[in-house]
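Thread: "does anyone have the structure for this chain?"

Original post by V.I.:
We have the sequence but no experimental structure in hand. Need at least a predicted one for the grant figures.
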Amino acid sequence: MLDPTIIFDTSGPLESPLTDEVLREVEAQLGRKLPAAYVDLARRHNGGVLARDAHPSPGRTSWSANYVAVYTLAAIGRTASFSLCGELGNAFWIAEWGYPDIGIYIADCPSAGHDMIALDYRSPGAPAVVHVDQDWNYQITVLAPDFETFLGGLIDEPDFDGDD
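Reply from O.Q.:
Generated one for you, tokens below.
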């Protein structure tokens, strides 16, 4: 279990702590079960700006040669605009921006919508965490085999030496 104080900066969560009722409603609306590590984190800190703001990438993206920048993790809920079922949640990215319907868009990047982080449910088992790059024809790059591994791989962006 990861400590949310090492994942989020000092800003507050995006929504109230997660309840069982809200979790059931959100999963029903999304049509998918969320990873246990995501749910556990949301019960302690429900979304917000990430303190560790980058993740290694196995190859070049529109952002960098070897990593992607990650900004905000979506809350599990619907009241905050950037919650999974909020105004700028999962459905918005698919319907308004044309992102592929591969799963659930869980984190935004500092590119103002030109790339996103998603849970990819296309394969059986736990959903992989992927980077979807709108500027590169919605190229999908696997960042981690699951959400918990993704969180553990987050690092401070200045720690990367790759070109931008």
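V.I.: this helps a lot. Strands lie at 48-49, 54-56, 67-69, 72-73, 103-108, 115-120, 128-133, 139-144.
O.Q.: and The mean pLDDT is 88.
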